[in-house]
Amino acid sequence: MKSLCFLSVFLVFLSNSWAAEPSLTSFCEHLDKTLRKVNSSAPTASCHSEKQKALYTRPTTYQGKTTSLLTPDEAQSLFKEMAAQDHIAFKFPVDGCFDRANEMTRLMLLKGIKPLKGFLSVREEKGGGYKHYLQLADKAKPDDPWRWTDHVAPVVMVQDKGKMVPYVIDPSAETKAVTFEQWKKNLSKHDKKIKLDTEIGRTGQYVIGSPLDMDFQDPAQVERLKTQIAKYKSYEQSKTGLNDYIGDELWDRDDTEGKLDAMSGGK
């Protein structure tokens, strides 16, 4: 396909350069038509196949931040595409949401979509520590849900019934794209006393309230992200993944006790 792209450009050059030669012009036109016919019957491919073509080009702003505006159907299609990324460990929700959110964001940016980040954070008790948690049901163990104090996922703006509404793309917790408010409700409805801080932050923002952003143009940061994504996928695929995660991740952290607390019921 790259050769066809080059030849088409070359033919335009020939036609312009040899306009005074009727026979050459006729030859160029005939060959150009032949190449166009071959090109139209071949599988579609970009001349610049190393870059994904931008699918959505409707920029907008939300709370002063530049993002992309999608239709409801486009948002659901985007959710399905992200959920199909089998290198991301959506079925290992115990940890890694920050990396999952960044990887989905990276993939969206390659498609020409600029998402924001949706954050939920449980407020600490006055004396420190946590008594309340975000919660996600574990289908394998209905009485033993996943619990966290913080969660994050990409957000896109959706034109819905004349209004611009933030929708969350979170295959680890949802089966479709949902509004930010519905996402918040789904993860906190089990506890009427839970108090949350929320934020729809910048595209590369790491955590709620943080000024630090990931630079998706930095090869070193992207490589680190890919390493993290692969690590969580290995936990997801292993029968001993949760134990491996605890051994690899928790015992080396200063906040081990708090993390284990968040993983209630043996999670």
TrEMBL record:
> For the Protein glutaminase domain, which residue ranges apply?
75-186
Keyword annotations: Signal
- Signal sequence region: 1-19
InterPro entries per the UniProt record, alphabetical: Gln_deamidase_2
Q: What is this protein called?
A: Protein glutaminase domain-containing protein
Q: Which organism is it from?
A: Bdellovibrio bacteriovorus
